[in-house]
Amino acid sequence: MQGRDNLLHRRRLEKVFVAVALVLIVSALLVLLSLTAEMFIDGLPRLNWKFFTSFPSRHASDAGLLSAWVGTVLVISLAAIFSIPLGIAAGVYLEEYGRDSWLAAIIEINVTNLAAVPPIIYGLVALGIFVQSWNLGETVLTGGLTIALLMLPTVVVVSREAIRAIPASLKEAAYAVGASKWQVIWDHVLPYSLGSILTGVIVAVSRAIGETAPLITVGALTYIAFLPESPFTSKFPYVSFAWLQAPFTVVPIQMFNWISRAGTDFQANAAAAGAVLVILTLLMNGVAIYLRYRLRKAVQW
User: Fold this and answer.
1) 189-211, pLDDT tens digit by residue?
2) Phi-psi region of 216 (alpha: psi -120 to 50; beta: other; left: phi over 0)
3) What is the per-residue pLDDT across 105-146, written as a single tens digit (0 to 9) for each?
4) Residue 219: is it exposed, middle or buried by C-beta count within 10 angstroms (0-12/13-18/19+)?
5) 249 Cβ partners below 8 Å, 6+ apart?
6) Residue 220 and residue 148: Cα distance in Å, rounded?
7) pTM of whole model > 0.90?
């Protein structure tokens, strides 16, 4: 009889816990939705072609995001070039080649620790290495390398999990017909896991787009009214890397600049920039879901 009473008491506590958790989740979502809706209401009137093609200005009505979104594209592209191939290669090595080696153990411990490090720490590390030791300056190259450091642990972890999820029977079938280890990885493991890897990579990029603290630490400007030199030229070799040495800013830092100013006009500009980031994040996550679906469907066929 006592055991039955204890069971009923636990079930009541479970129902109370579920109800409290549901109320808290719904409340948090309502607060988030209300804040997002307010941001869109304030910012949508400023979202026009002029807003995306104008430089920052001391007049709110003339201020735009041109230098900020160009800087964001350059920094994130550079970070992706450095972090994605290296992260996928590290995931393949840790999961397929170095499971029992001391080097893999060291890499795994460091990756696990780095995944939990606050973003500002990456900025301080980048300031000491890239700016002061390597003398790269407060440039696009420094910003890209800083964000690459931030993205790298996520890409490594995602790559490992995607490769680990592959059925062992798929590898065994490839080995059975005489394929080498590298052929199994290149022709079977990577294509099969590519959907999950791309999803993780896009999520990492989405997170990196909104980072501010590491870039401020390495010297990103809060106001810039010019663009870096174009990476393409009309003269041979038709490619220029001068833009790597240019100063830069990004959209979150431009938002911080506007939100710190007095007046509702600049607040509207900040809200518009925030709406751009939210829309961009939603689009990137939508692309990740679509690519994962298409790639998995292609592998199944």
Assistant:
1) 888 888 888 888 888 888 888 88
2) alpha
3) 888 788 878 777 888 888 888 888 998 889 888 889 999 999
4) middle
5) 67, 68, 71, 220, 221, 222, 223, 224
6) 16
7) no
Is residue 135 classed exposed, middle or buried when 0-12, 13-18 and 19+ CB atoms within 10 A define those classes? Answer: exposed
State the Cα angle at 80 between 227 and 283, rounded to 5°.
85
Locate 220 and state its tokens: 């990103």
What b-and-e string marks burial along 253-282, b requiring 16 or more CB atoms within 10 Å of the CB?
bbbebbeeeeeeebbbbbbbbbbbbeebbe
Structure tokens at 106: 């060291």
| Token reading at 167 | 């059925």
Tokens at 61, concatenated: 């009505």
Query: Cis omega before residue 237 (within 30°)?
Result: yes
| Residue with token string 């979150």 | 252
DSSP state letters, 114-181: HTTS-HHHHHHHHIIIIIIIS---SSHHHHHHHHHHHHHHHHHHHHHHHHHTS-HHHHHHHHHTT--H
Amino acid 1: pLDDT:
57
Structure token digits, residue 77: 């592209």
Per-residue model confidence as pLDDT tens digits over 47-93: 888 888 888 888 888 888 888 889 898 999 999 999 999 999 988 88
Regarding predicted confidence, which is higher, 87 or 223?
A: 87
Q: Which of 194, 197, 178 is nearest to 186 (CA)?
A: 194
The pairs formed by 254-259 with CB atoms below 8 angstroms and a separation of 24 or more are 254/56, 254/65, 254/67, 254/68, 254/222, 256/212, 256/222, 257/56, 257/222, 257/223, 258/60, 258/63
Name residue 298's amino acid: A
What type of residue sits at position 179? A
